[in-house]
Specification:
The chain is α+β, with helices and mostly antiparallel strands. It has two helices and twelve strands; from the N terminus they run βαβββαββββββββ. The structure holds two DNA strands. Keywords: Dioxygenase, Iron, Metal-binding, Methyltransferase, Oxidoreductase, Transferase.
Length: 206
DNA sequence: TAGTATCT
DNA sequence: TATG
């Protein structure tokens, strides 16, 4: 059964990072996590924990707690500023984002083999004219994308280590999520799991 | 300044 | 940024 074409504004680039590039990226992310440890966010109001663990790098980081979703300059656990975005990711943004200002946030999501991400939209950014640029590392996942309304039809496909995914244009506010992780599908991370990096421009224009 | 990336 |  053949899938419909990707919606306009979606760009999936298989294997943007080769193995060496992925290894270098993981080293950079390890340095970020050493300074800004992964933590488990909670849902607004209910306090229900996410199944993914998160951290950020860049001047701003996306956080969620009982008070809501927001971007803030400090790690909610350590109180320290987020580390800088690694150069290789700034370079990636320059090559694929088609946006005249640098990203301000790089959200780092770690999925263990049971983690999921429910269908949602990235809409906490003022700069909705800038795309969201995503990098997959480690185990593959089943990714799902729909339209601007939660009820719009969805399609899904696998994202593998080294893939780059750009959510922009008419699809910038498309609902998307991660249905499942495929454990053991990559040897990049010794202890398994998937890391997703999403680069965002938060403020307009800059 | 009112919804939410939780969850079945 | 809980919030009524």
């Amino acid at each position: 059964m053949k899938n419909a074409p990707l919606p306009e504004g979606i760009r999936l680039i298989d294997g943007w990072f080769d193995r060496d590039g992925q290894v270098a990226l993981i080293a950079a992310i390890r340095a970020v996590v050493a300074e800004a440890p992964l933590y488990r966010p909670e849902m607004p109001r209910t306090g229900k924990p996410f199944s993914v663990r998160m951290t950020n790098c860049g001047p701003l980081g996306w956080v969620s707690d009982r008070a809501g979703y927001r971007y803030q300059p400090l790690h909610p656990v350590t109180g320290c500023p987020w580390p800088a975005i690694p150069e290789v990711l700034l370079a990636l943004w320059g090559e694929v984002a088609d946006y005249p200002h640098p990203p301000e946030a790089c959200l780092v999501n770690f999925y263990d083999e049971t983690a999921r991400m429910g269908l949602h939209r990235d809409e906490d950014e003022a700069a909705l004219d800038a795309p969201v640029v995503s990098v997959s590392l480690g185990d593959s996942c089943l990714f799902r994308i729909g339209g601007r309304e939660r009820s719009d039809p969805t399609r899904s496909f696998r994202l593998a280590s080294g893939d780059v995914f750009v959510l922009g244009g008419p699809s910038r506010l498309a609902f998307h999520g991660v249905d499942r992780i495929y454990p053991g599908s990559s040897t990049l991370l010794e202890r398994g799991g998937r890391i997703n990096l999403t680069l965002r421009r938060v403020t307009s224009p800059g």
